[in-house]
Every structure is written in C-alpha cells, then in structure tokens.
Design brief:
The protein is of the alpha+beta class and about 260 residues long. Helices cover about 65% and strands about 15% of the residues.
C-alpha cells in the first residue's frame, strides 16, 4: 500500500513538474519573442529615423546647391547688367552735361539695387557663410533688412566664433532668414529683435517681433513653421515658438548637447 501511495505521489509530482517546466518554457519563449519583436521594432524605428535624417540632409544639400547657383547668377549676370546700366548713365551724363541732375535719382536707385543684390548674393552663398562665420552673416542679413525700411532691427551678437558646427551654423542662419521673411510678409511689425547667447558650450538664438501675432491653437501649423522645426531637429537644436494676438511672434532655439 505504501509503495502504491509512493508511486501515485511520484507520478503526480513528476506530472506537475513537467507541466511547470512546460509553462516556464512557454513563458520564456513568449518573453524572448516579445523582446526580439521589441528590438526589431526599435531597430526599424531607428532605421526610419536615420533615413528621414539622411533624406533631410540630402534635401538641404540640394537646396544649398540651388541657392549657391542662384547667388552666382545674381553676382555674375544681373551684377554685370547693373554695371552696364551704371556705365550707360555715366556716358549719358558726359554726352549731355546739361541734364546731369536728371540722372541723379536713377543713379541712386541703381546704387541701392546693386547694394541689395550684393548683400542678397552673399547671404545665399554657402561658401561665403562658411568663410565669414555665423555672426558676421547675421549682421549682413540685418544690414539687408534694415535697408528695406520695413521695420527696425535690434540685434545683439556676441564676439568671436560660435560654438556650433558648420552645419548647425548654416541651419540656424537659414532658419533666421525664413523667420525674417515671414515677419516681413505677414507680421506688420515695426520692430524685430535678434538675441544670441554663445558662452562655453551653450548656444541660443531668440527672435521677437512686435507684430499682430496670432493664436497658435486657432491656426493650423503651416508649412513654414513645420519646415523651421524640421531644420532645427536636423541641426540638433531645441525649438520653441509662441505667439498671441497683438503680441507678435517669438522663436527660441538652443543647442541640445555639446558638439
């Protein structure tokens, strides 16, 4: 009887152990499968992120190439036409000295257009930006905007080179150009400020206009704002935007981590 009881106990114990082992095996298999799937999903998401970043980089390179060609065309072709026009006016003044005063207004306009053309050509040229640095490029942009007499620009720039990479410098400058262009077109502002902080490994750029502004919750994010955000992300910069009716628009960018 004791042997029979022992056999029943042993059978139950063995069966239970086998079931527990099977359950443990199933749980381990499911855990490893879930972990493998999570890893694959993470790798897929990372690959997608890298692809999008690479695509944006290619788009930026193509854009910069086109802008460079445009800058060269402005400098070479239209610049030559303006020079020819200026010489023509000078010749007319020599041939008709009694009418020289009537040519003064035309000369002023030609000189103004030539200055605008040169400033615009410089701000479009990547090689020029890389040569003079971010802060000098921003100053050139400020001079160009000031000469348009649309709004007063208040600009505070630090001395020396920035602590950004060349790619980040280019991105932040193109972003600033787009913000200024949007302000010129839509803000109705009379003042536009640019504030740059560049100390140690910290960098930030803040712009503010005193224009009409808008309620971001009531307006769908446009392509311009989305483009600015994409460029900021591509450059590894944080981006914050705020606006309100009658309060203008404020943009803030800062470096996420040391280069």
């Amino acid at each position: 009887m004791d042997n029979y009881s022992d056999q029943i106990f042993f059978t139950i114990f063995t069966t239970t152990l086998i079931i527990l082992l099977l359950v443990a095996a199933i749980i381990i298999t499911l855990f490893l499968s879930a972990r493998k799937q999570a890893k694959q999903e993470m790798q897929l998401a990372q690959a997608k992120l890298e692809f999008e970043k690479e695509l944006r980089q290619v788009e930026n390179e193509v854009s910069e190439h086109i802008l460079g060609q445009m800058a060269q065309e402005l400098h070479d072709n239209i610049g030559q036409e303006l020079t020819a026009l200026h010489l023509t006016v000078q010749n007319q003044k020599m041939d008709h000295p009694q009418q020289s005063d009537s040519f003064k207004t035309l000369e002023v306009h030609i000189t103004h257009i030539d200055k605008q053309l040169r400033l615009l050509s410089r701000t479009l040229n990547y090689d020029y930006l890389g040569h003079i640095g971010l802060f000098a490029a921003i100053q050139t942009q400020v001079e160009r905007v000031q000469s348009l007499n649309r709004f007063h620009v208040i600009c505070h720039l630090p001395n020396g080179p920035s602590n950004l990479s060349k790619n980040q410098e280019l991105m932040i400058f193109r972003i600033l150009q787009e913000i200024i262009q949007n302000a010129l077109r839509h803000s109705g502002a009379t003042e536009f400020s640019i504030q740059v902080q560049n100390a140690g490994q910290q960098f930030s750029l803040t712009t503010q206009d005193n224009g009409k502004g808008f309620d971001p919750d009531q307006v769908k994010k446009g392509a311009g704002l989305a483009h600015i955000e994409k460029r900021a992300n591509l450059a590894g910069l944080t981006f914050a935007f705020s606006s309100a009716p009658g309060k203008g628009c404020r943009y803030h960018f800062s470096k996420i981590e040391p280069i």
